[in-house]
Specification:
The protein has one domain: 3-Layer(aba) Sandwich (Rossmann fold), CATH 3.40.50. The protein has helices at residues 16-20, 38-41, 45-62, 85-95, 158-171, 187-194, 206-214, 217-241; strands at 9-12, 29-33, 69-73, 76-78, 81-83, 99-107, 121-128, 143-144, 177-180, 198-202. Residues 226-241 have low confidence and may be disordered. With 246 residues, it is an alpha/beta fold. Helix 3 crosses helix 4 (85-95) and helix 5 (158-171) crosses helix 6.
Length: 246
């Protein structure tokens, strides 16, 4: 991609399973995504586990030889037992010829808190075909204290998306396009464009697909700043109107 060429974004409103069956031209692809949880698909646990594992392998097959697959996943508790999504993902990717190269922890809640149904942290799992170049330092922290603002409850946070894309840019420099086959409202696509990369997304819900075409990181910053300003103003007003006691 030339230095003057603006990054593009292509969002397809389609079912990911069907999209994966289509012939496509690719070049410089890495995949950054989050495979849906069982609660999002409305299927049995057994069916979901098989889907989840197989999908991890299918996503890895999209990656070019010099590219990476980065998945952001949150473990869940099912019938009193933790579902280890990293194990399911690893099995699928390994069957497709990939290996785990990096694991990062992204806090969904402040450290020190516990959780019941969903883990208080997500994992950033990075897979490739060859080991990272030892001469290239990893500048993405092993633990992120905050995943960042989200556009919806199941969406990937801004800081988590940046961490994933930054790992790809650093260790897969031939990558020109970030592909998110479960793009939701487009956080990963927006971050890819922010980092100067082309982006391709797939989302089966037409409304979310349209939002994914328009989302910009700058809009998130503005919204975050407005929220912070509103919160500060409210706190100041409350303090000013609170009666004093002798």
């Amino acid at each position: 991609m030339s230095a003057v060429e603006p990054p593009t974004r292509d969002v397809v409103a389609a079912d990911t399973v069907e999209w994966l069956k289509l012939p496509r031209q690719r070049g410089g692809w890495s995949v950054v995504s989050s495979i849906p949880d069982v609660s999002e698909l409305g299927v049995s646990d057994v069916v979901w586990r098989a889907f989840f594992t197989e999908m991890a392998g299918e996503l890895f097959k999209l990656v070019d030889d010099g590219g990476l697959l980065a998945l952001i996943q949150t473990d869940v508790r099912k019938d009193g037992l933790w579902v280890d999504k990293s194990g399911l993902v690893g099995a699928g990717v390994s069957a497709a010829g990939g290996m785990l190269l990096a694991r990062k922890i992204i806090c969904r809640r402040p450290p020190g808190m516990t959780s019941t149904k969903r883990a208080a942290y997500s994992q950033l799992l990075v897979f490739g075909r060859t080991a990272f170049d030892a001469a290239v330092p990893d500048t993405v922290p092993d633990v992120l204290a905050d995943g960042g603002p989200v556009t919806w409850t199941r969406g990937v946070g801004l800081y988590a998306a940046r961490a994933a894309v930054d790992v790809v840019k650093r260790f897969a420099p031939t990558t020109t396009t970030i592909v998110d086959p479960f793009c939701g409202e487009g956080m990963i696509l927006a971050v890819a464009n922010e980092r100067g990369l082309h982006a391709v997304g797939v989302e089966r819900h037409k409304k979310r697909a349209e939002l994914a075409r328009r989302l910009r990181v700058a809009d998130l910053r503005i919204a975050s700043e407005l929220t912070a300003t509103s919160t500060t103003a409210t706190s100041t007003t409350t303090a000013a109107t609170k009666p004093t006691t002798a």
